[in-house]
């Protein structure tokens, strides 16, 4: 008998298996897809930024350099960029933000332009933060760096100081105020030999000493300075008066250091009498105008920031608690030492808070004004800077927290020899003119 072809017979379960193998299952007339082979997965946004840092190198004071970076959507889903911001030195600025608020398809890019405009010589740092929906890096930080290069290159061998009792070294070597002979020290007042600026004592490494290490012929004086001086009040040998004296005695390029402002706080009877921003700015501008117009080309001016007067009561109390020969509270009350900051009472916290706000505002104004004046250095021939760093990333006189050993044991207020050394160190570290 001839062979006949027969269709294979499959059981019900075999038929189901075949359907599953080919990728689908029929149930009640509905097709249910099986899991696709070959992997896959959810699309994710990702970000890449190039370059990862911006180094501007040396840029002349008053000039501007520009660089840019590219932000790329490197993932498999759209990338949304929520913000692009700068922190750090204000010498850096975002000038072309083509990214913030944008949504980039995979593979697309957008630019961010950054400029560097140094207002003074020295090193500057900053950061660009890019916040996005990226799964690999929700926040990308791009480091910024640059160096301001002074356009003033003449040799400077003269230093001039303007200031108040701090520059005059007031009571710097006094260690007690309760002993029978203590008055012989604190009654002596000015001790310029211990000045942070030009002190002649071997116990102080002054600004002048530091310059002499670089230039043996360097010499400095603080003839314009006087205890009790203010930045503002014309009756208190103010900045304009001292600037006038400095200009009148300077016939060659000079390194000028101005240390004023503490008495603008201490000489006020109440917080309502503290100078506002407008009066402070007017006084600073008057002195700077006199200096930049009258000093020889190649001169520089460093405005020392106002110290933290608001801390000195607490520091003095700490000092008297560890030294039996020192009674700060009694001395402050007996000799009327900066009572707006040293007196006790129920309003103490309110007074110190108001002083804190004014001290910070005065220093912020110094930073703004010195940057403005320094941008004119190429035309005025005089570069102006301050030690104050508004970002707080560098220690300045205006941000330094004095310790008990930094104030003398006579009036418990002015810097001790240790404090004068600390001032010299802090100012020198922030001085770009070396």
Describe this protein with a few key phrases.
434 residues; 23% strand; Immunoglobulin-like; 12 helices; five-stranded parallel β-sheet; alpha/beta; Rossmann fold; globular; disordered N terminus; five-stranded mixed β-sheet
Structure description:
With 434 residues, the chain is an alpha/beta fold. It folds into two domains: 47-149, Immunoglobulin-like, CATH 2.60.40; 158-429, SGNH hydrolase (Rossmann fold), CATH 3.40.50.1110. Helix content is 28%, strand content 23%. The protein has helices spanning 12-21, 183-186, 207-214, 239-248, 262-266, 277-294, 312-322, 328-335, 339-342, 348-374, 377-380, 417-429, and strands spanning 24-27, 30-33, 47-50, 53-60, 65-73, 79-88, 92-97, 103-104, 109-116, 122-132, 139-149, 158-163, 219-221, 255-259, 300-304, 383-386. The strands form four sheets. The chain has a five-stranded mixed beta sheet, with no helix packed on it. A hairpin with a 6-residue loop joins β10 (122-132) and β11 (139-149). α4 (239-248) packs parallel to α6 (277-294) and α6 (277-294) runs parallel beside α10. It starts with 11 loop residues before the first helix and ends in a 5-residue tail after the last helix.
């Amino acid at each position: 008998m001839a062979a006949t072809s027969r269709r294979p017979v499959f059981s019900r379960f075999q038929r189901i298996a075949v359907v599953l193998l080919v990728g689908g299952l029929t149930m009640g007339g509905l097709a249910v897809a099986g899991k696709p082979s070959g992997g896959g997965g959810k699309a994710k946004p990702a970000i890449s930024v190039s370059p990862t840092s911006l180094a501007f190198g040396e840029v002349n004071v008053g000039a501007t350099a520009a660089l840019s970076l590219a932000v790329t959507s490197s993932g498999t889903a759209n990338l949304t960029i929520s913000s692009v911001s700068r922190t750090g030195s204000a010498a850096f600025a975002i000038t072309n933000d083509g990214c913030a608020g944008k949504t980039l398809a995979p593979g697309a890019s957008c630019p961010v332009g950054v400029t560097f405009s140094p207002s003074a010589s020295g090193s500057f740092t900053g950061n660009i933060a890019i916040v996005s929906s990226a799964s690999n890096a929700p926040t990308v930080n791009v480091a910024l760096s640059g160096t301001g290069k002074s356009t003033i290159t003449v040799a400077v061998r003269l230093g001039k100081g303007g200031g108040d009792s701090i520059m005059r070294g007031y009571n710097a070597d006094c260690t007690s105020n309760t002993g029978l002979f203590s008055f012989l020290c604190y009654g002596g007042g000015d001790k310029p030999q211990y000045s942070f600026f030009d002190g002649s004592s071997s116990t102080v490494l002054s600004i002048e000493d530091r310059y002499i290490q670089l230039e043996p012929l360097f010499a400095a004086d603080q003839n314009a300075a006087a205890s009790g001086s203010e930045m503002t009040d014309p009756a208190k040998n103010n900045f304009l008066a001292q600037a006038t004296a400095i200009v009148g005695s300077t016939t060659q390029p000079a390194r000028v250091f101005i240390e004023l402002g503490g008495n603008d706080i201490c000489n006020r009877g109440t917080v309502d009498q503290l100078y506002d921003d407008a009066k402070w700015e007017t006084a600073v501008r008057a002195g700077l105008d006199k200096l930049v117009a009258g000093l020889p080309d190649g001169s520089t001016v460093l405005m020392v920031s106002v110290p933290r007067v608001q801390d000195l009561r607490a520091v003095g109390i700490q000092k008297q608690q560890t030294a039996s020969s020192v009674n700060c509270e009694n001395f402050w009350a007996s000799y009327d030492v900066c009572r707006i900051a040293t007196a006790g009472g129920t309003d103490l916290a309110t007074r110190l808070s108001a002083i804190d706000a004014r001290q910070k505002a005065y220093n912020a104004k110094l930073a703004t004004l010195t940057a403005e004046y320094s941008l004119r250095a190429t035309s005025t021939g005089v570069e102006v800077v301050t030690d104050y760093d508004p970002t707080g990333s560098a220690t300045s006189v205006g941000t330094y927290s004095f310790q008990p050993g930094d104030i003398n044991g006579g009036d418990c207020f002015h810097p001790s020899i240790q404090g004068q050394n600390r001032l010299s160190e802090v100012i020198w570290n922030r001085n770009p003119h070396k």
